[in-house]
Amino acid sequence: MKDRRNFLLYAMGRLVSLMGTGVQDVALPLFILDLTGSGTIMGTFMIITMAPRLILYPIAGVVGDRVNRKWIMVWTDFGRGAVILILALLATRDLITIPLLFGAQFVVSLMSALFGPATMAMLPDIVEEEDLTRANSTMGAINSISYIIGLALGGIIYGLGGIRVAFLINGVSFIGSGVSELFIKYHQKTKKLGKIHEVIEDLKEGIYFIKVHRGLLVLMIFALVINFLFNPLFAVLLPYVSRIVIKFSSEQYGMLQTSFMAGILIGNIIIGTLLAKSKVEKMLNRGLLAQMGFAFVFVALIFPQIVGRLGYASWTLFFALSLTFVFMGVFNAFVNTPIMVELQKLTPTEFRARIFSVIEVAAQGIVPIGFGIMGILLDLVPAYIIALTVVTILLLVILVFVFKYSKEVTEGFENKNANSLSSQSIDS
Question: What domains does the chain contain, in order, with CATH numbers?
Answer without folding.
Answer: 4-186+205-414 (1.20.1250.20)
